[in-house]
Amino acid sequence: MSIDTLQRFLLDELDIRGAVVRLGPLWQRIVAGRNYAPPVAALLGEMCATTLFIADALKQPGRITFQLRGSGPVSLLVVDCDERLNLRAMAHAAADVAPGTAPQLLGDGQLMLSLDLPNLRQPYQSIVPMQGDSIAEIFEHYLGLSEQLPSRLFLAASAEGAAGIFLQKLPNADARDADGWNRVESLATTIRDDELLGLPCDELLTRLFSQEVVRVFPERQVLHECPEDWDKVRTMLRSLGREEVDAVLREHGEVLIRDDLANRDYRFDAAAVEALFGETPPTLH
C-alpha cells in the first residue's frame, strides 16, 4: 500500500468489511504552518482518517463535512472530503493544549454532519451529541446511530502521518460465523500505533488476520487540492458592500480573508479594494 491512500478489504468468509488509510506527505501539507499543539494535530489526524472511511463508503457521489464543536481547549475540528477523496481539514484551539482524552480536549459538544449530494436541493444535516473518550469512540457511536451496523475504528496520528483501520459487521455476519465479529474485534485491538502508521496494508492485514480469507481491493489515492478562488472571495466582498469593506480597510490597513480549510489568506490593499468596486461584476445568464 502506498502512502496517502485508502484501501478497502473484505473478510470473505465472515461478511465483515473494512478499509485501511495511511497518510504521510499529504497530512504534513494539511498541517504545515498551522502550529497545532500535538494533541490537537492527533485529534485532527484521526478525524481525517475517519472521514475518509465514511466518504469512501457513500452510495452516491457527494461532499461530506464533519464538525466537532465543543467547549474545551479544542473548540472546533472540521474535516471536508468529496467523492474523489479530496481532503481538507482545520482546527481551532488554544495555543497550548495539554494531552488528554477527547472529552477533556473538546469539552461538551456536538458532532455535526453536512452531506451535499447532487440530487439534494440543499445539504442534508445531522447533529448528534459527542459520546466517547476518543475520536474512534465518538464516530463508532455516530455510525451505530446512522448505519445501525456495528463498526470499529482503530486510529493513530502524529506530526508525520495519520492512519487507521475501519471494520464493519455486515448483516449476514452472524449467519456466516457466530463468533467471527468478536474474533476480528479482538484481533484488531492488538494493533499498535507504530504498526498502523508504518506497516503496508498487506502486511498489516496479514499480521491481524492471518487465519482469515482477506480480499483486498485496489487502493484509492487521497488528494489535497485547494486551488485559489479569487472570484469567490471578490463576490463575497462585493456582497458585503463598499461601506463595510472600506471600514475594515481603514481599521486594519488591508482586508484579510482567511480560508482555514485551504490554509490560505486573501489580502486586499486600498488599490485592490478600489479596483474591486470599480470592476463591473459578472452577470448571470
TrEMBL record:
This is Hsp33 family molecular chaperone HslO. InterPro entries: Heat_shock_Hsp33, Heat_shock_Hsp33_C, Heat_shock_Hsp33_N, Hsp33_helix_hairpin_bin_dom_sf. GO terms for biological process: protein refolding. Keywords: Chaperone, Cytoplasm, Disulfide bond, Redox-active center, Zinc. GO terms for cellular component: cytoplasm. GO terms for molecular function: protein folding chaperone; unfolded protein binding. Pfam families: HSP33 (PF01430). It comes from Rhodocyclus tenuis. It comes from the Bacteria. SUPFAM superfamilies: Hsp33 domain (SSF64397), HSP33 redox switch-like (SSF118352).
